[in-house]
């Protein structure tokens, strides 16, 4: 029997979920508790889908070890051991546990998940399908529901977390984004084409002690019709593949049409000032700049910040997702046939590579929305929600300040920015100066000596114009000329977060 056809625990017994949650917390079945029990090495191995170190670390008789084997490693555990930790009778009756009297098994994967403010949450998913869990991915089940993984935590980390009235988690899966949204949204709607996913979302929210969400079955925006929201988040089935074999990853539309449709249609579903966050894949097509392709996706009336985090050529991309489904373990001839199908699909569309990244929209009434498309494959510091919000706030500032207003403004060098001088040893002057952030996007940018001097004295006390006049006097340059050529550099430093407007 496949995972996708296994019966799920009953969701109509709130008291059972509450008693299970209490038992898990009492036994320290939490993210911190797992790290303490397993140790850093075995804990990291689990994230690589390697279970042997965790099995060795849970050979003892403790309550936590029993729960790890039961819910994370999906091993049978003697009835007596489980009965000493969990309300076995109620869990058997409601379907959380199954098995003969002498050994019990979990029917679902339950993974501890730490919330952003230290909350102890639990993500419920199909057995063996918590990403980085006991079984890894590699499932051929069409309706399988995955647990928490790198993509879902990335999306949660980049989402702006301000209090809102309404939030939409589109393609909710096991409910991770809905769980986060429930902490700062009055009403949460979660949708999915897969009814099994909605059932798992219900279990995730209940076991995490979170408010229930409005669960709706259907594709893309169909379940919400013309309703609008203050926040939209989606980790959609963005994989560009030949067909829609696996619901959790394959969108079923040609090429990157699913991601394009999501982004373009989101504009009409956002309230003024609302944010939409997506993870997406996009094609790099012969004869077209990928940046132009993505700019064409941005709906009217929305600012956008699009960040390409990674690019793979079509062979790397095909191999990644063939392995994701476990196709590399099948008959070699069958594997080669499927590999050919992927390459045929890319060739037909003129696709030479596939990009992956984040797309954030903000609904704005501005006459000229700001659209930024950039490549940033370097490490960043999550969570980035505040960084994203501040980026759009700075766009508002720049949009409403011409060069004269910019020179009249006051700026402050952002915290955690350092200056690096690069040049040959012993040289009198550096070849160039680099400003580097140690927080957020962790950007680095080259500046000239004027830019470095300007940033270095920005403490909010003097206007930009007065600072430039002082620099002009020091370097022997005409102040008017310096005022004319410097605003562009100031704009870049503000946009990228090196300089912050004071009092904006």
Characteristic terms for this protein:
single chain; alpha/beta; eight-stranded mixed β-sheet; three-stranded antiparallel β-sheet; 19 helices
Fold blueprint:
Layout: H1 14-26, H2 31-47, H3 52-57, H4 63-72, E1 77-78, H5 79-83, H6 88-94, E2 97-98, E3 103-106, E4 109-114, E5 120-125, H7 150-158, E6 164-170, H8 176-181, E7 185-192, H9 195-207, E8 214-217, E9 229-234, H10 257-266, E10 270-285, H11 290-295, E11 302-313, H12 314-324, H13 332-348, E12 351-363, E13 371-375, H14 385-399, H15 403-408, E14 410-413, E15 417-422, E16 432-437, E17 444-447, H16 449-457, E18 459-463, H17 464-475, H18 479-485, H19 487-495, E19 499-501
Parallel strand pairs: 6-7, 6-9, 7-8, 9-10, 11-13
Antiparallel strand pairs: 1-3, 2-3, 4-5, 10-12, 11-12, 14-18, 14-19, 15-16, 16-17
Helix pairs in contact: 12-13, 16-17, 17-18
- N-to-C span: 60 Å
Helix percent reads 25-40%
Overall average residue pLDDT: 93
Query: What's the count of strands?
Result: 19
- Oligomer type: single chain
User: pLDDT below 50 for ≥5 consecutive residues: which ranges?
Assistant: 131-137
Shape: globular
Taken as a percent bin, the fraction of beta residues is 15-25%
Radius of gyration: 26 Å
Biggest sheet architecture: 8 strands, mixed
Q: Total number of helical segments?
A: 19
Strand order of the largest sheet: 8-7-6-9-10-12-11-13
Derived structural class: alpha/beta
């Amino acid at each position: 029997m496949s995972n996708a056809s296994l019966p799920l625990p009953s969701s109509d017994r709130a008291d059972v979920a509450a008693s299970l949650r209490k038992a898990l917390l009492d036994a320290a079945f939490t993210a911190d508790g797992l790290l303490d029990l397993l140790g850093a090495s075995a804990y990291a191995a689990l994230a690589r889908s390697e279970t042997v170190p965790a099995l060795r670390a849970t050979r003892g008789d403790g309550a936590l070890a029993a729960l790890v084997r039961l819910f994370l490693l999906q091993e049978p555990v003697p009835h007596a051991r489980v009965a000493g930790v969990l309300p076995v009778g109620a869990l058997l009756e409601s379907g959380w546990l199954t098995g003969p009297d002498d050994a019990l098994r979990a029917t679902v994967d339950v993974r501890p998940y730490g919330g952003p403010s230290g909350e102890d949450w639990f993500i419920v998913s199909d057995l063996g399908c918590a990403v980085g869990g006991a079984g890894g991915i590699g499932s051929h089940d069409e309706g399988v529901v995955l647990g928490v993984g790198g993509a879902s935590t990335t999306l949660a980390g980049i989402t702006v977390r301000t209090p809102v009235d309404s939030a939409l988690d589109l393609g909710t899966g096991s409910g991770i984004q809905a769980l986060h949204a429930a902490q700062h949204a009055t009403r949460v709607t979660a949708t999915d084409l897969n009814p099994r996913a909605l059932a798992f979302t219900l279990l995730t929210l209940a076991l995490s002690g979170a408010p229930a969400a409005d669960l709706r079955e259907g594709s893309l925006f169909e379940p919400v019709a013309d309703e609008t929201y203050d926040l939209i988040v989606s980790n959609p089935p963005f994989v560009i593949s030949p067909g829609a074999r696996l619901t959790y990853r394959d969108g079923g539309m040609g090429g990157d049409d699913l991601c394009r449709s999501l982004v373009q249609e989101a504009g009409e579903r956002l309230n003024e000032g609302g944010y939409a966050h997506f993870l997406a894949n996009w094609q790099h097509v012969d004869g077209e700049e990928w940046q132009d392709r993505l700019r064409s996706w941005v709906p009217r009336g929305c600012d956008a910040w699009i960040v390409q985090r990674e690019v793979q050529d079509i062979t790397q991309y095909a191999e990644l997702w063939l392995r994701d489904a476990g196709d590399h373990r099948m008959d070699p001839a069958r594997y080669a046939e499927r590999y050919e199908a992927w390459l045929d699909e890319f060739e037909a569309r003129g696709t030479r590579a596939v990009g992956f990244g984040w797309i954030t929209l903000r609904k704005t009434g501005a006459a000229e929305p700001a659209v930024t498309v950039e490549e940033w494959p370097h490490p960043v510091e999550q969570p980035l929600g505040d960084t994203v919000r501040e980026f759009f706030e700075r766009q508002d500032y720049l949009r409403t300040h011409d060069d004269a207003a910019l020179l009249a403004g006051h700026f402050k060098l952002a915290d955690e920015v350092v200056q690096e001088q690069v040049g040959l040893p012993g040289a009198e002057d550096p070849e160039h100066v680099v400003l580097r952030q140690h927080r957020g996007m962790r950007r680095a940018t080259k500046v000239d000596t004027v830019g470095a001097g300007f940033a270095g004295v920005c403490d909010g006390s003097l206007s930009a114009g007065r600072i430039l006049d002082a620099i002009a006097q020091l370097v022997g340059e005409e102040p008017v000329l310096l005022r004319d050529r410097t605003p562009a550099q100031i704009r870049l430093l503000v946009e990228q977060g090196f300089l912050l407007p004071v009092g904006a």
